[in-house]
Structures are given as structure tokens and as C-alpha cells.
Write a structure and sequence with these properties.
heterodimer; A: 546 residues; seven-stranded antiparallel sheet; 20 helices; B: 328 residues; seven-stranded mixed sheet; six-stranded mixed sheet
């Protein structure tokens, strides 16, 4: 029964929008299934299974061979559906009814420990036969799950946080504890599930809990009235805000989203464990350019965080650093109630002690943030404008006398971000999206004027609301000049405000420039294409910055 | 006079047109003479001098747009002549009164499928196989990913969906003419025996169906100020146009669903914003279209309303059928 139940669970989670309802559904699933299958369910839902047994292309080819469907027909269907596993599932419908469903009672555990692993031991011909056999003997409602696991595309709108919440509610234990238990190499087994739902908490688990984060508010003009000496100034890095905890010798890395990310950054965990003292640090994790001593873009950090494991090669390719802003606890003493300026003194004191006394070199992965000392507020503004040069987003301004409260407390910490760069550009190409956005034109290319010609300068996917996407999709279909496969060239008519973070020379692009993180910030229906910016403007922007 | 090579029916200004009889089929703008295949609004426009349809279609249309239009009616299978062309309506199985239209001229047969389905539907006449030389077929769902389950299965799913959440009011969105009545007919055969309410636009059509002798379950008309407790555990049928906007604020603790063939695609289902999608359609699925093409014995086929390129390419590769394209 259990694969069927898991398919049902998937269907429910997929269609429910409410977080509370999702938690209810998960709870009742866990209550009504065996530990081993629950364990596998968690493993799948938290995305720990990411092995691709066969590719989507392979699956489509195989279907085409077995059921004599022309390849082009399957490809056309794919354009509409946006997911190979789902296309094949839809095409399989009613194809296999005549056969007996001997696998109608197969469990999730059996599928994942026997049927699917066996596939990789077979030669191609045997493998094809076995997949066909599984298609014909598995009940239809399980095809989607099966195809998705095969192609390594099993995903559903459930975060690890949601699983954590459901388990936490199920057994009435704090989320941080469950989070800690789910961390590390959670392997599907009866034991691992029983450990997860164990109501007895051990000391180590308690020790890993982070403090609630203190968050900065948006800048307010009224700060200008205060003397600049009342504040501490830091660069605002664009990395992952994190608490680095070492208690009783164990290191844990907690993100602001209550996620434990030790696995993604093992080298940091290892090096920090060399330090003799226990502590809780608040800081930022970044991929660091050690030559220039500035941060790399956030996109490189994503290459680290999106991985389930970090082999040595990845650690070298994307070297990380933890920059501490604040010291919250030292050797068991909670110091959040003392003033920031005094905490800073402690932080500096301990940092220099650790640098000198720790046997292994820690300075290649850990430092404390440099402070900035503007003379007056206009000097502070100048610093803010310079923040692009060192790849920061602006300034963080903190009251020297602030205590470490929790949440977005008003009137003590502010973020003072540099404005994004913007250009008005003309929409010239659109491409169909995939996944959720299948069947809609959601990938756009934008152009700027050069003399009388529109030159493509950026592509952007994000920034429009769902309603705007639908509206634009309709317009795109009516105003297509030419189709090249999935791409349509469009009548130049629509102007959009494109914001981006960085602009640099690029020989690879016809426009001669490349921009970072382009996104749509406004649909300028009020503008005609002649009002759009020309490439000259982009060059000027670039000069201004460098 | 028509030359041998010119087609009897062609595409003109986005509509099907028979020049010889000066007849338009489901025109989207006012013309002199319009044949109406069925009473959905996207097949009807005001201001034509003359309308011709089946009796049921005429009654439904008048109920929807008022009595002040002239409609000439014929029975299914009854032949009438315009400019020497023999014309007749045949059941298309789409909704009550819906029809295919056959033209015969100089021993050449043309068949316009209209919107059609082959699936069982007790609220209208079953699709009739009509032999023809030329077939003009709709292909709204002309991809092999579209395969419909039998409607009793969907009705059971709907019944389960409602009864599994007895504390909620279940809002099912569906087209007010045809789909709603088909669902009511099917749901009456399921285990669900709670109250069913219909929105005014659906309620009106229900009555019309009943007057025409169709067996569908009684429903209550939904009033704006219904007590919320009273609606718990019941089913409310609403037209899709009400799914967005403030209308839903009239209810508390609801779950929503949309009944449509498009709901078979996950991305569309998720994007639609409904809690659930039930895959049920009054159009033919892929196999249905292929079946009709085959059984009509047409040697020449045109497709419109949908992915016509796909079906055309498939049929010309697989079958010895000549797929033609309307000059645009």
C-alpha cells in the first residue's frame, strides 16, 4: 500500500497551498505509515535523493521505441508540459491497462532499495526491458513518482523547514532539535526515523541551538540628526547571514532560516573546532576573493549551498570565509545584554587570541569584520556609494549602545543600501519557461538602442507578477515576428525597466557589456520604444563606477 | 459558379464560410446568415439577420440572450436546402443541442465537426458517426498527453473530495452550460448526498435542461447572504469567471476546484490557483479525434481550434489521409 500512499501524499502536497494544511497532511502520513517508509518519505521530500538513474531524454527515447511514438510528437508534448517524467506519465495513461498489476502493493522502501537500484546493474537492453516491465506492473497512479525518481527530478513544494515543523508538532519537541537530528547524513532506516521522533533530548542537541537573529531595518532619514559617533559602521555583505556556534567542542552553522548547513561547509566546521574556547558568533558566510580581499558574487556562494556535499575540489574552487560581526556568547556566558561597543571589544580580544594561540591557521577561513569610520554623514554617503567597488551592497549602521535583541527591532540597526543600476530596455525575444512556467513565455531578452538598431544586452526571468506574466504571454503570442524553435522574436513595442547590480565589459556579447542579476523592476507601459535607453547610457554607467 | 478546385467551405476573416450558400458557421461578427453549432457564447454573436440551429440550441440561446432573436430550427438529421446545397445537423455530443453540420453539394460531402466529444454524457445525444469526403474538425486537445478518464470516475473523485473535508464548503468551478449539468448528472450517481447549490447562471441552465427532459439533480440557487454553517459540507457550482475577485469573500473555510481538460497538466493546474483540478472535458481527447477522423472515412481533413500542426503532421505520416490547410 505504501507507494500508493506516498503518491497520494505527493498529490496532496502538490495541490495544497496552505502551510498549516501541508503540516497536517504530513503529520497524518507519518502517523499511518511504517518507520522505514516514513524514513524514505523524509529522505525524498527533503531532496536528499538527487541521483539521476536515467536522463529525461533517455526516458522519452525509450517510450518512443516501445510504443512507436514519433520523437517529434513527444518533444511537442514536452513543450506544453515542461517535464519529461510528467510527459511520459501522461502518455503512459491507458497504455498499460491490460497487464496485471502485480506490483500494486509495492512499498516505497522496496521500490527504492530493490527495484530501482537493480536497474544500474543491468545492461542497456535488460534495463529497457525492466523499465517497460515496471511501467506495466506498477499501478498508474504511481507512474509520476516512479518516473520522477528515475530521472532525478523528484521535487515538491516542501522545504526541509516544513518537514522539521511537522515532526516537531508530531512529537511536541522544539524545531531546532529536529533540525539538528535531520542534519548530517540522514540515511533512510528504521533507526534513523526512530531517532528522529525520539522524545528524549540529549545534551548535545540542546547545545546546538542558535539565538534568535537580530535584523536590521531599512534606513531612516532621522538618523542624520544624530551624531555620527553614536554609531558603528560595517559593510553590508551579500552572503549568508549565519550564527557560528561552538559549544562543548561541537560546531554548528545556522542560517537565518533556521537551517543547519554544516554539510555544505565542512572545512569551516573543521577549522573552527580547533579553537579552544566555546562561543556563539553572528556573522556572514561568503565566497572570498583572497587576492583582492573582497567577496565574490552571491551566485558563487549558491554553488556551495546548493550542493549536498562539498568535496575538496569544490572547496578550492569556491573558497569561503566567515566574517564575524558580533560575539553573543563566550565560554557559556551569554553576553547579548551588554552594549555593542563592549561586545566588539570582546570580539577583537578573542579574535586576536585565537589567531595567535590556535595551532592551525584559521585566518584563511575566519576573520572579523572591518569597521568603517566616516568623519560625518556626507562621508558616510561617500562610503555607501563606494560599496560597489568592494562588492558589498552598502552599509550596516548599528547603534554602539545597542543590545542584541531578537527580530527586526526598530531604532538600533539599519541597512543603508546602494541604489541598483537601471536602464529602460525594449523586449525583443521571448522563450518558453519550463517546470511551473511551462507553456508560458517567461524568459525574456531586452535590447538597447545603438543608432537605429536594437542590440540585445540582457535576459531576465524574474520581476513580473503572475498576472503580468499572463498578460505579457498573451501579447507575445499576438506579436510574434518569427519563431526559432522555442524562441520567438517580437515586435519591438514593450519597454521595461531593468535593474542590475553590476556592469562590465564583455567581448562575448554583441552589446560589449554584461550585467549581473538583471531583473525586471517595472513594466513601463507609459514609455514608447523611442524612450528606451541607448547603449551609450550603459557605457556611461560603467565609466561612472570604475 | 464555383470552379472544381475551390473548396466548398473555407476560412474567411477567422470564420468558416460557405460562399455558395452565403452561410457562415458560428461567426464572430454580424453576418447575413449564421449556422450555430451550439449555444456557448464563443460560438455566437449578436446582430445576424438570420440564425439557424437545432431546436435545443435555439431554446438555450434564447434563455441566455433573450427572446428578441429570430432562430430557424431543424431536427437532427432533417435536411434543408440553401442555394442547392443540402444541409443537416447531427449530434456532436458536446452539450445539449450541439451539432456537427453536413453539407452535400454535387455529390461531394463536407462535415464540420463543431465542438464534439465521444465520451458518454447522459445530458446530451451521443456523437453520431457521419461519413464524409471532407472533414473540418476541432482539435482543442490535439496532443496525445490528453486522455480522459471515464466521467463516473471523476464524479467519484469529486464526491470523495467533498466528503473528505466535511468542515469545508466545496466550490467547484465549471462552465455554466453543459459541464455543470453533466457534472450534476454524474454526481447524483455517487455516494455524495449533501446539499448542492448552483450560481444563478448555472441554475438557469439547469432549469432549461430539465424542461427539455434531461435528468439532473435538483440544486438550490446560491444566495449571497447564505448562512455559513448551512454551507458546510455542501457543494457549490460556480462559473470560472467568479474564481478571481471579491466573490469568494462571501464564503468562509472553502476549498476550490476547477473541472476542465486543461487540469491534466501539472504546471497549468498549479498556475490556475485552484486547490484541485478535475480532468473532465466536453471536447474529444487525442484518441477521440483520431477515432472520428478514421470513422468519418474522410480523405481530406482540416483542423482548427488548437494544435492543428501536430495532428496534421501525425496523420500525414501515419495514415493515408490528406491533411489540408486553410489559406489564411
Amino acid at each position: 500500500m505504501s507507494l500508493k500512499k506516498f503518491s497520494e501524499l505527493f498529490g496532496n502536497l502538490d495541490s495544497i497551498n496552505s502551510t498549516n494544511k501541508k503540516i497536517e497532511v504530513l503529520k497524518s502520513y507519518f502517523l499511518s505509515n511504517e518507520p522505514i517508509n516514513n524514513s524514505w518519505a523524509i529522505y525524498l521530500l527533503t531532496g536528499k535523493i538527487n541521483k539521476r538513474f536515467i536522463s529525461g531524454r533517455y526516458l522519452k527515447n525509450l517510450f518512443s521505441q516501445i510504443y512507436e511514438y514519433p520523437q517529434w510528437l513527444i518533444d511537442t508534448c514536452y513543450l506544453k508540459v515542461g517535464d519529461s517524467a510528467e510527459v511520459i506519465t501522461l502518455l503512459l495513461k491507458n497504455k498499460t491497462t491490460s497487464r496485471n498489476k502485480e506490483l500494486s502493493n509495492i512499498s516505497l522502501n522496496e521500490l527504492l532499495t530493490k527495484k530501482i537500484p537493480t536497474l544500474s546493474k543491468l545492461n542497456e537492453e535488460e534495463k529497457n526491458l525492466e523499465i517497460k516491465n515496471l511501467w506495466e506492473t506498477l499501478p498508474e497512479e504511481n507512474h509520476l513518482i516512479f518516473n520522477k525518481i528515475l530521472t532525478g527530478t523528484f521535487r515538491v513544494g516542501v522545504s526541509i523547514g516544513l518537514i522539521t515543523k511537522s515532526i516537531s508538532k508530531l512529537i511536541n519537541i522544539d524545531e531546532e532539535i529536529i533540525s539538528h537530528r535531520l542534519m548530517g547524513n540522514f540515511k533512510p532506516s528504521i533507526d534513523s526515523y526512530e531517532f528522529l521522533i525520539n522524545k528524549n533530548i540529549n545534551l548535545e542537541e540542546l547545545n546546538s541551538k542558535p539565538f534568535p537573529f537580530l535584523l536590521a531595518n531599512s534606513f531612516e532619514d532621522k538618523i542624520f540628526k544624530h551624531s555620527i559617533d553614536e554609531f558603528q559602521f560595517e559593510w553590508k555583505y551579500d552572503g549568508i547571514r549565519m550564527q557560528l556556534i561552538k559549544r562543548s567542542g561541537n560546531v554548528s552553522l545556522w542560517t537565518r532560516g533556521q537551517e543547519l548547513v554544516n554539510e555544505s561547509f565542512p572545512e569551516l566546521v573543521e577549522k573552527m573546532s580547533y579553537i579552544k574556547d566555546d562561543f556563539v558568533l553572528d556573522g556572514e558566510l561568503l565566497v572570498w576573493n583572497f587576492k583582492k580581499q573582497i567577496a565574490f558574487d552571491f551566485s558563487l556562494l549558491q554553488k556551495r549551498i546548493n550542493r549536498k556535499s562539498s568535496p575538496r575540489s569544490i572547496q578550492i574552487k569556491y573558497p569561503i570565509i566567515f566574517i564575524a560581526y558580533d560575539l553573543l556568547e563566550i565560554n557559556g556566558r551569554d553576553i547579548r545584554e551588554i552594549k555593542l561597543e563592549n561586545r566588539r571589544i570582546e570580539l577583537e580580544k578573542y579574535f586576536s587570541k585565537w589567531q595567535n594561540k590556535t595551532k592551525n591557521n584559521i585566518s584563511d577561513i575566519f576573520k572579523i569584520c572591518d569597521l568603517i569610520y566616516p568623519k560625518d554623514w556626507s562621508d558616510a554617503l561617500t562610503y555607501k556609494e563606494k560599496s560597489r567597488e568592494n562588492n558589498t551592497e552598502g552599509l550596516i549602521i548599528k547603534k554602539k549602545e545597542s543590545l542584541y535583541a531578537s527580530g527586526r527591532k526598530k531604532g538600533i540597526w539599519w541597512k543603508y543600501k546602494v541604489d541598483p543600476m537601471q536602464l529602460d530596455a525594449v523586449l525583443i525575444y521571448a522563450k518558453g519557461g519550463s517546470g511551473r512556467r511551462a507553456g508560458l513565455y517567461t524568459d525574456y531578452s531586452f535590447a538597447l538602442w545603438k543608432d537605429q538598431e536594437l542590440i540585445k544586452f540582457a535576459s531576465a526571468y524574474s520581476g513580473l507578477t503572475n498576472i503580468e506574466i499572463k498578460e505579457l504571454d498573451k501579447w507575445i503570442r499576438k506579436n510574434t515576428i518569427e519563431k526559432f524553435g522555442p524562441v520567438r522574436s517580437l515586435k519591438p513595442e514593450m519597454v521595461f525597466e531593468i535593474s542590475f547590480e553590476k556592469i562590465q565589459i564583455s567581448k562575448r556579447h554583441k552589446s560589449g557589456i554584461a550585467v549581473r542579476f538583471p531583473r525586471i523592476t517595472k513594466w513601463r507601459k507609459d514609455k514608447k520604444i523611442n524612450d528606451a535607453d541607448c547603449l551609450e547610457h550603459a557605457y556611461e554607467l560603467m565609466k561612472k563606477i570604475s | 459558379m464555383r470552379t472544381k478546385k475551390e473548396n466548398l467551405i473555407k476560412y474567411k476573416d477567422g470564420n468558416l464560410y460557405c460562399e455558395l450558400a452565403d452561410i457562415w458557421i458560428d461567426p464572430s461578427k454580424p453576418v447575413k446568415r449564421a449556422l450555430i453549432t451550439h449555444a456557448h457564447f464563443d460560438h455566437f454573436t449578436f446582430g445576424c439577420e438570420e440564425y439557424i440551429s437545432t431546436k435545443e440550441t435555439a431554446i438555450l440561446l434564447k434563455e441566455r440572450v433573450g427572446d428578441n432573436i429570430e432562430i430557424k430550427t431543424f431536427d437532427y438529421g432533417e435536411e434543408f436546402k440553401i442555394n442547392g446545397i443540402n444541409i443537416s445537423f447531427h449530434p456532436s455530443g458536446h452539450i445539449l443541442g450541439s451539432s456537427q453540420i453536413r453539407f452535400i453539394f454535387a455529390e461531394e460531402k463536407w462535415l464540420i465537426s463543431g465542438d464534439f466529444k465521444l465520451q458518454k454524457d447522459e445530458t446530451c445525444k451521443q456523437y453520431e458517426i457521419v461519413k464524409t469526403d471532407y472533414l473540418i474538425s476541432e482539435c482543442t486537445f490535439g496532443l496525445p498527453i490528453f486522455k480522459w478518464d471515464e466521467s463516473y470516475k471523476i464524479a467519484n473523485d469529486i464526491s470523495e473530495w467533498i466528503t473528505n473535508s466535511p468542515e469545508k464548503t466545496s466550490l467547484l468551478f465549471c462552465y455554466s452550460l453543459g459541464k455543470a449539468q453533466r457534472l450534476l448528472n454524474e454526481i447524483s450517481k455517487t455516494n455524495f448526498n449533501g446539499n448542492i447549490y448552483s450560481h444563478g447562471s448555472i441554475y438557469k441552465m439547469n432549469n432549461c435542461y430539465k424542461e427539455l427532459g434531461i435528468d439532473i439533480k435538483d440544486t438550490k440557487k446560491i444566495e449571497n447572504k447564505k448562512k455559513i454553517d448551512e454551507l458546510k459540507g455542501s457543494l457549490i457550482l460556480l462559473p470560472p469567471s467568479l474564481s478571481k475577485g471579491s466573490y469568494l469573500k462571501n464564503f468562509k473555510n472553502i476549498q476550490t476546484a476547477f473541472a476542465s481538460g486543461w487540469m491534466s497538466i501539472r504546471a497549468l493546474r498549479k498556475r490556475s490557483g485552484y486547490d484541485k483540478g478535475f480532468v473532465i472535458s466536453d471536447h474529444a481527447d487525442w484518441d477521440g479525434i483520431l477515432d472520428v477522423v478514421k470513422k468519418s472515412e474522410a480523405k481530406n481533413v482540416f483542423f482548427h481550434h488548437g494544435d492543428s500542426d501536430v495532428l496534421s503532421k501525425y496523420l500525414s505520416e501515419r495514415e493515408s489521409i490528406n491533411v489540408l490547410f486553410f489559406g489564411k
